[in-house]
Amino acid sequence: MSRLAVTFAALAAAVMLGTGMVTPTHAADIKAGLMLKKDFPGAGPVNGMYEFFKNEVEKNSNGEITVDIVYGGALGKPNERLNQMRRGVIQMSDASEGNYASIYKDIQILSMPYLFPDEETAWKLLDGPIGTAMAEDMREKTGIRVLGWWESGGFKHYSANKAIRTPEDMAGMKMRVMAPIFGIPVLTLGGSATPIAFPELYTSLSTGVVDGQDNAVWVFNLIKLHEVQKYLMLDGHIYSFGPLGINDKWFQGLSEDHQKIVTDAGRAAVEFNRKASRAAEDEAIAYAKEQGVEVIEFTPEMKKAFADRIRPEAVKWLKDNVDTPSLVDEVVAEVDRLSN
Description:
By secondary structure, the protein is of the alpha/beta class. It is built from 13 helices and nine strands. The protein has a domain at about 105-340: Bacterial extracellular solute-binding protein, family 7 (D-Maltodextrin-Binding Protein, domain 2), CATH 3.40.190.
């Protein structure tokens, strides 16, 4: 036998006999890149979801699948981590709907202003036929498999130093909003929409560069906007969410048993997230009130007044900017059915 053949034979024998000459590689590993630091205030519903997922996967696979969570944006900005996940550099990322819009335009439909009357209706749509079909379409077009749809703090709400109770109250106001779809309510009602980087938001509000902003309540509290904003309007104009995504090529390489473990863990982690997010928002609203912020609860009638003015413009913009315009009307009709 040649020296090369002898070497291969020795390697094969070592593997078969378990002599330790060759150590089999680990069955599978998941690396998840997250934006916020571990134990960051208010990060429990999202960071905790990935920690729950990690525990479930490792426990139910007897350690055959390990999950490495990298916190604090150490692996890059959200869009960078999203693209790393697509390429398989990492397997998971906490990128939310705004980031996914850069690679899957149809997800913007679910950010239609005043689309969902409450969180439960959003969950029904996301977990139902439309959300399932959208997840499959996303998998085929982006290579990212959706294990479930998590909640990023619930609804976005406006804050300002002027009370906003009617559509007319928005006229002339300068509001900090980021994505184009988020600016439609402000522009339609006669205000101006200004994108401002998050680290500059507090200063921009305190110096009057903008009059108000929109974010989930936990974010409002996180950067102490109660110091520069008198009113918090619980109008719930945009539902903030994210796909619990995983690289599909990596997932397809798993055994059926391991695929089920990952899928079940994803479903359970999303359930954890939603419960934690709802509890956290209640606490966040109470905290804002304690800081002297006047919290204005929007009734269904108040929301409808805004929705009636904004819906036509939102529908038009979406149909011009998504890949499946017919899905816009389909989503609206399904939300109406689920909420009636």
